[in-house]
């Protein structure tokens, strides 16, 4: 039997995990960026102060990159307060987790550590190991020149070989580099043709310096762009007349793809219906993998109310998560029904509009007698307010006490005022969600939120995930699918 | 003297943000042959020319353009462009725009009017002429120039704390044609338009409207209001159909509660109407309340159709002191501005009425020596 303190601890950890999954310190539909950052900072302080081990353990879960960086920074900043054993475990977890982060995030973290004047032995070791594991440091030196330079200087490291040191720390008059990429970079200063062998962001600067027309530049640099760069630039490239820049939708991660589809005007979506639907379905099938068709009869209630438009910083994020979840659940279930709150039937044409009659839609969903009901919503149930909670409560207590239907609520928005994602009803587990790809793992995590499992199980779960992470397995098993 | 007829507009569940509660009104059948659109005037002080040589200055953030058809066929909203084709004023001088009258015919079937200005003008001009009979107590200024200059205060929506955010996060219902705005659960303003598309276009203009002192203070001082959350009784529900019926009952109960209790101050009062313009089968008019102190009093303007149903509505909640002023002026006018008779009708002494007039800001209407006498009487009488 868990003590009261243990129950509180389990509760706190779940609350923190929800925040760490959803909040990126950016503006949301209902809350400002300032409120989000303030609220998130408080949670980090609270967790670090009270449950240092659990706080570090959260690194092994599918929390978002923003929070991974914050946790790593906080742990390294306060390394002096930890025991030797804790420091060893934390170091291992941080190293393993940083390996899964995109490099620009890690360089940003190193910069933050430098600004905070954190330069303990643990920090230097983490930086040394991460840089040593980079597949091509010359590439980093070109693409993240300033950041790499500052990181090396901060950690007192010597770059391998003589050339890299010269490249980063001066002697620009050097006549020749033996490393091909560095040599290309040198030539790009005076030779237009050379810049097309550089990474896109670096080449863009040289193109501007040489006055290369945008259309010509985009046309020729297209093969060097990353997936996300292509996705981001392709609309403006088409306006410039560079048709070579075309994102390969078939390889795009699911939620990212959903965001892209929602950014298109309705006419484009109608015209490209087959292509877009096909891409979404194949992305969902990739995520579902071996679980495909194993979830039985599933009904989803998906929120496409006006608040799903997110903010200028997170455009249509909640709606994109709902659309991605729609396709993923269709792949996971063998009998699937998706119900949008607006009552629209065509998932490809959804747009954020109207109120949130969640209660009514949940009633419609329960009528299909599913074995699993998944609700994807920001939890602002307002037409009428509180009906969803009442429907779920009465359903659980009077109509389905035997729990034939498992209900889970996934919430893509962090509510800064409540220090958690908004819940619908006490009887329904709520979990934060950032990428729909995490959905299977989150449904697993949400079982803890039902309050039937205690701290011991939660700690065991975190330890198992941490062991998986440090043993080399990817966190969440989906990082191959990232950009 | 008739009440507002909001037939055709259904109440939907409210949305709450801080101390602001927004109650959407939905039209099942939109009115197709009258359309409204907004026209932004920018940061220009406006001089409203009332004709007949009189005019007043005002800041008018936007105007509405009503377009209608004679045969009942659908009309298109006209000129929803931002800053419709007006020449830009030089940047270094304060632009001044002359609005020719508050309602002006722009084309044969198009009328431009300034929202709330009809209503406010109606209130400001209430018995503006001053004493109709030159009883000796009234000052020479009162007899010669009436109530001029007449001053009232209001706040723009942007100054009402929390209102801009509440309007931003409000989720517009499909078919929504109106909104009732409550601050700390007192009705602050009512707004209704003929067509959902007009509503979507005009929803953001609510933050540029004028709101009374009461609304401003309540928004600043009052704590957040709670949601009226749905409650479904456990007993007697045995299947999903029963649950669904209970849910529908909750929605109906809310609409009933709102219309009968929350909006009673607006809907159950009777108003004095004055027609301003005829637009085909529609009538643009303004209305004044009965000015009963310590009650809700709304002034406003409305477009009604042939049967008197409201097609367009905009109201302004008067503050308590504004109601008192209106009340005093109407009572005085009822008794031909005779102080003793008015005082008797109000059940107070003449001196008390005089001091009430002074407290209401109308001291300059009474002769100084008369006012001094009232003060002395009150001092002696009050002991």
- Number of E-type strands of chain B: 18
Q: Sheet bearing the most strands of chain A, described?
A: 5 strands, parallel
CATH topology of the domain at 289-481 in chain A: Rossmann fold
Mean pLDDT of chain A, nearest integer?
A: 89
Helix content bin of chain B: 25-40%
| Sheet of most strands of chain B | 9 strands, antiparallel
Count of alpha/pi helices of chain B:
11
* Strand composition percent of chain A: 5-15%
How would you classify the helix and strand content of chain B by structural class?
Answer: alpha+beta
| Shape type of chain A | globular
Instruction: Name the average pLDDT of chain B.
Output: 80
Helix content percent band of chain A:
40-55%
CATH class of the domain at 289-481 in chain A: Alpha Beta
- Counting helices, strands and paired strands, the structural category of chain A is alpha/beta
Distance between the termini of chain A: 44 Å
Order of helices and strands of chain A: HHHHHHHHHHHHHHHHHEHEHEHEEEEHH
User: Total domains of chain B, how many?
Assistant: 2
Would you give an account of this structure?
- The complex is a heterodimer of chains A (483) and B (383).
- Chain A has helices at 4-22, 33-50, 52-57, 65-77, 84-98, 103-115, 121-132, 137-143, 145-154, 161-168, 180-188, 200-210, 214-221, 227-240, 254-263, 266-271, 273-288, 317-332, 358-367, 387-399, 439-449, 455-470; strands at residues 297-302, 335-340, 372-376, 406-411, 414-415, 420-421, 430-432.
- By secondary structure, chain A is an alpha/beta fold.
- In chain A, the strands form two sheets. Chain A has a five-stranded parallel beta sheet with strand order 2-1-3-4-7, sandwiched between helices. In chain A, strands 5-6 form a two-stranded antiparallel ribbon.
- In chain A, strand 5 and strand 6 form a beta hairpin.
- In chain A, helix 1 (4-22) runs antiparallel to helix 2, helix 4 packs antiparallel against helix 5 and helix 19 (358-367) runs parallel beside helix 20 (387-399).
- Chain A is globular and about 80 Å long.
- Chain A starts with a helix and ends in a 13-residue tail after the last helix.
- Residues 474-483 of chain A have low confidence and may be disordered.
- Mean pLDDT of chain B is 80; it is low at 77-98.
- Chain B has 383 residues and is an alpha+beta fold.
- Chain B has helices at residues 117-124, 140-145, 163-169, 196-202, 213-221, 240-262, 264-267, 320-334, 339-346, 350-362, 368-382, and strands at 9-11, 15-17, 20-27, 34-40, 45-51, 54-59, 62-68, 96-100, 103-107, 110-113, 155-156, 176-183, 186-192, 210-211, 272-279, 282-288, 298-304, 310-317.
- Chain B starts with 8 loop residues before the first strand and ends with a helix.
- Chain B has eleven helices and 18 strands.
- The A-B interface holds A 29-30, 305-307, 342, 353-356, 359-360, 363, 366-367, 382-387, 389-391, 393-395, 397-399 and B 12-16, 24, 169, 171-174, 227-232, 234, 237-240, 243-244, 246-247, 250-251, 254.
């Amino acid at each position: 039997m868990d003590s009261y303190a243990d129950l509180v601890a389990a509760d706190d950890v779940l609350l923190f995990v929800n925040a760490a999954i959803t909040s990126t310190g950016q503006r949301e539909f209902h809350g400002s960026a300032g409120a989000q950052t303030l609220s998130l900072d408080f949670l980090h302080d609270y967790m670090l102060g009270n449950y240092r081990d659990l706080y570090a353990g959260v690194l092994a879960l599918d929390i978002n990159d923003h929070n991974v960086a914050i946790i790593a920074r906080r742990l390294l900043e306060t390394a002096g307060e930890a025991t030797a054993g804790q420091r060893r475990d934390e170091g291992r977890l941080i190293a393993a987790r940083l390996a899964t982060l995109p490099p620009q995030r890690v360089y940003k973290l190193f910069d933050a550590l430098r600004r905070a004047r954190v330069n303990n032995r643990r920090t230097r070791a983490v930086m040394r190991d991460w840089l040593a594991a980079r597949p091509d440091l010359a590439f980093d030196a070109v693409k993240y020149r300033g950041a790499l330079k500052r990181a090396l200087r901060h950690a007192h490291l010597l770059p391998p070989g003589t050339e890299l040191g010269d490249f980063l720390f001066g002697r620009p008059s050097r006549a020749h580099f033996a490393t091909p990429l560095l040599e290309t970079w040198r030539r790009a200063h005076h030779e237009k043709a050379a810049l097309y062998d550089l990474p896109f962001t670096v080449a863009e600067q040289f193109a501007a310096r040489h006055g290369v027309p945008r259309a010509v530049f985009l046309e020729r640099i297209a093969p060097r762009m990353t997936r996300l760069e292509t996705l981001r630039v392709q609309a403006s490239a088409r306006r410039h007349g560079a048709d070579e820049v075309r994102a390969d939708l078939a390889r795009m991660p699911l939620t990212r793809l959903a965001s892209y589809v929602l950014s298109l005007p309705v006419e484009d979506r109608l015209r490209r219906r087959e292509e877009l639907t096909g891409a979404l379905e194949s992305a969902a099938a990739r995520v579902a993998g071996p679980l495909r068709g194993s979830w039985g009869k599933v009904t989803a209630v998906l929120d496409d109310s006006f608040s799903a438009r997110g903010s200028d910083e997170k455009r249509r994020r909640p709606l994109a998560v709902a659309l991605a979840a729609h396709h993923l659940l269709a792949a996971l279930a063998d009998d699937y029904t998706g119900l949008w709150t607006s009552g629209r039937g065509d998932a490809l044409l959804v747009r954020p509009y109207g109120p949130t009659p969640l209660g009514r839609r949940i009633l419609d969903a329960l009528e299909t007698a599913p074995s699993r009901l998944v609700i994807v919503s920001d939890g602002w149930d307002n037409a009428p307010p509180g009906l969803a909670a009442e429907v779920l409560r009465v359903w659980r207590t009077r109509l389905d006490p035997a729990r034939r239907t498992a209900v889970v609520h996934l919430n893509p928005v962090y509510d800064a005022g409540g220090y958690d994602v908004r819940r619908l009803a006490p009887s329904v587990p709520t979990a934060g969600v950032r990428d729909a790809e995490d959905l299977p793992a989150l449904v697993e995590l949400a079982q803890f939120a039902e309050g039937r499992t205690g701290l011991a199980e939660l700690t065991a779960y975190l330890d198992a995930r941490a062991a998986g992470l440090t043993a080399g397995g990817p966190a969440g098993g989906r990082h191959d699918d990232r950009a | 003297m008739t009440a507002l007829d909001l037939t055709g507009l259904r109440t939907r569940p409210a949305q709450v943000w801080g101390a602001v509660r927004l109650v959407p009104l939905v039209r099942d059948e939109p009115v197709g042959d009258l359309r409204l659109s907004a026209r932004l005037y920018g940061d220009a002080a406006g001089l409203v020319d009332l004709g007949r040589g009189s005019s007043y200055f005002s800041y008018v953030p936007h105007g509405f353009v009503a377009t209608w058809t004679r045969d009942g066929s659908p009309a298109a909203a006209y000129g929803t462009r931002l800053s419709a084709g007006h020449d830009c004023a030089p940047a270094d001088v304060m632009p001044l725009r002359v609005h020719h009258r508050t309602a002006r015919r722009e084309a044969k079937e198009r009328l431009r009017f300034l929202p709330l200005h009809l209503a406010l003008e109606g209130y400001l001009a209430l018995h503006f002429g001053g004493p109709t009979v030159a009883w000796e107590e009234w000052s020479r200024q009162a007899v010669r120039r009436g109530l001029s200059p007449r001053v009232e205060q209001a706040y723009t929506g942007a100054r009402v704390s929390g209102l801009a955010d509440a309007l931003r996060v409000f989720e517009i219902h499909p078919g929504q044609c109106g909104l009732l705005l409550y601050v700390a659960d007192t009705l602050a303003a009512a707004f209704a338009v003929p067509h959902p598309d007009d509503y979507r276009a005009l929803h953001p203009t609510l933050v540029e409207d004028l709101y009374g002192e009461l609304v401003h203070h309540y928004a600043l001082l009052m704590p957040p209001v709670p949601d009226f959350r749905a409650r479904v009784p456990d007993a007697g529900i045995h299947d999903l159909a029963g649950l669904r019926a209970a849910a529908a009952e909750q929605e109906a109960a809310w609409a009933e509660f709102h219309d009968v209790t929350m909006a009673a101050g607006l809907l159950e009062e009777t108003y004095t109407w004055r027609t301003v313009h005829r637009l085909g089968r529609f009538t643009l008019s303004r209305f004044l309340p009965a000015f009963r102190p310590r009650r809700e009093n709304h002034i406003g303007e409305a477009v009604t159709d042939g049967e008197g149903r409201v097609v367009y509505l905009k109201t302004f909640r008067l503050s308590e002191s504004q109601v008192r002023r209106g009340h005093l002026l109407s009572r005085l006018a009822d008794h031909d501005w005779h102080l003793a008779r008015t005082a008797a009708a109000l059940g107070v002494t003449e001196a008390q009425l005089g001091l009430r007039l002074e407290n209401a800001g109308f001291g300059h209407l009474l002769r100084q020596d008369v006012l001094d006498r009232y003060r002395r009487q009150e001092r002696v009488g009050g002991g």
